[in-house]
Amino acid sequence: MSFLNTFTDNVHKFPNKIALEFIDPPLQRVTYAELDQLVQQTAGYLRSLGLQPGDRVALQLTKCLEFILLHLATLRLGAISLPLNLAYPPDEIEYFLSDSGTRLFFALESNAARLQPVVSKLPELQECIFLKPAEPDQFNSLISDSPITNYRSLTAQGEAFQDTAVIIYTSGTTGRPKGAEITHGNLISNLQSLHAAWGWRSDDVLLHVLPIFHVHGLFIALHGALNAGATALLMREFDARKTLETLVEKHCTVFMAVPTIHQRLLDVPDASQFDLSHVRLITSGSDRLPDDVFAGFQQTFGYTLLERYGMTETGMNLSNPLIGERRIGSVGLPLPGVDARVVSAETGERLPDEEIGELEIRGSNVFKGYWRQPEKTSASFTADGWFRTGDLGFREADGYFTLCGRSKDLIISGGLNIYPPEVERVLVEHPAVAACAVIGCPDKEWGEKVTAVVVLNEAGSVSGADLIAFCRERLAAYKSPKSIVFRNDLPRNAMGKVQKAELRKTVCQVG
Ligand code: MLC
Q1: Over 80: is that where the pLDDT of 150 sits?
Q2: In the chain, where are the structural domains located?
């Protein structure tokens, strides 16, 4: 069974049920039968462009029906979908497309002028198609002339189960971002675990406010709803008040978000006027849920948030229970089919309960490896096949896990991962910068705020604002520093390594 088989079953079971409804302009609504028909037409269109199984199709689009159709049609054809964050500037896009050897690239018409010089440099890229999601007729006319394609059928036994379905780029502590290869098997196994753990139902109505180019919005929320035969109401861009209004007015039963979004809901004036008692499941993930947001949700809405823990490479690993104690500060218990253990960072040996070590994960949810990076892949697994998450935590005697830091140098801002070396690499390209260190400072809104500590060359002169602008030209805005602190030197250990813990103590307090 693959996710696509479940979706097809739902098309037969609920042909006239609304599968997707975009609740802001352009308003669009498709039933399961209509969605299936559109995906088939889109598959026909992709095939007419020569797409073959295993080819990569990159999508850098807004949250729109076209994105979903191209993504599902790509999976249907046994090709590989490669969703890209809209915030990535052309420099980053060039790297993702060339590293992945993308064959077809769908991007926004409004970005055509910026992207054109980049795409013309890529020999493996066969075609770049610019879309206008605000004008759905454009895409309809592209796909309507294509013959309807019968999909390659995917089965649990066949090699398709092991085939890569999606590549999502994740940054790393060293080098450029790596493409995590997620298989059809990973997708369905994680969906089945979550279906059972969270009690997904075909009469659920999901309010979907997350971007669809990451695991959370794409696999957990969108695939989750389609896998359940439920209805997804999609908000193109998150708006806090509209979220609360929609949850109430459209009788939504499921809502998933990151802590920054939950905090913004709490900040809505008169938030407590919104009665969310009919929403049966509200989850929080992608970043640690601060205790005051957990408590604020209980006080304001009378709801106990269900915190869960996942990663791009593994999908979802741990979750607080649907029924039973949702423990503050804890990410809960291993999901069905997922094994979790805590090991010593030094010896790799399993640690007793309550002792802090590195969290490792095993299960059919764990990805195949990093695209064309066998060494980095093997370094991320233990000899006996456990994935090293890089997160530190402990297990309690009753099986609940708590995270308490990271062994990797990583910042999480608004639910997005940022690896400081990526930002440092850009900063040192500036001629006035002699050295720098990028750290995350605690922040009420974002969880952590990207902060760069910069040492200038003797003759160097540049303002913080100019350095931020320099980064934003080369990096996605969310990765770029939100503040720059100038120092005469950086604290280093005997090996010359910057002492980031020391910097966090002195720099973050100052703000
Ligand atoms: C936007 N900005 C961010 C940011 N998002 N900066 C830091 N961190 C972020 N996450 C920038 C914008 O570019 C903008 O810059 C400024 O901050 C303010 O923008 P905004 O309009 O207030 O932000 P908004 O568009 O509302 O976005 C905030 C958000 C969004 C919280 C809604 O970040 C979001 O949807 N986050 C969810 C990310 C997600 O889905 N993560 C899941 C990863 S999967 P300026 O200066 O240009 O105005 C994963 C696995 C798992 O982690 O377990 O789930």
Answers
A1: no
A2: 3-237, 305-406, 411-510
> Cβ–Cβ contacts within 10 Å for residue 142, how many?
17
Q: Would you state the structure tokens that stand for residue 285, as one six-digit string? A: 């993930």
Q: What's domain 3-237's architecture?
A: 3-Layer(aba) Sandwich (3.40)
Query: Closest Cα partner for 361 from 238, 193, 199?
Result: 193
CA distance 461 to 464: 10
Evaluated on CA atoms 337, 343, 349, 353, the torsion sign reads negative
The radius of gyration computed from the CA coordinates of the chain, to the nearest angstrom, equals 23
**How many whole angstroms from 416 Cα to the centroid of ligand 1?**
7
DSSP helix/strand/coil, 194 = helix
Q: Which atom belonging to ligand 1 lies closest to the Cα atom of 476?
A: 13
Nearest to 286 by CA among 448, 62, 501: 448
Q: What is the mean pLDDT of the chain?
A: 94
Q: Which CATH class is domain 411-510?
A: alpha beta
Task: Specify the ligand 1 atom closest to the Cα of 215.
Answer: 44
pTM: 0.94
Sign of CA dihedral 173, 177, 180, 181: negative
Give the CB-side neighbour count of residue 104, counting CA atoms within 13 A. 24
- Residues contacting ligand 1 via CB (< 6 Å): 210-211, 214-217, 238, 258, 260-261, 285-286, 310-312, 413-416, 446, 477-478
Residues near 157 by beta carbon (within 8 Å), at least 6 away in sequence? none
Summarize the confidence of residues 335-358 as an average pLDDT: 95
In order of 4, 49, 53, 224, the CA distances from 282 in angstroms are 26, 41, 37, 14
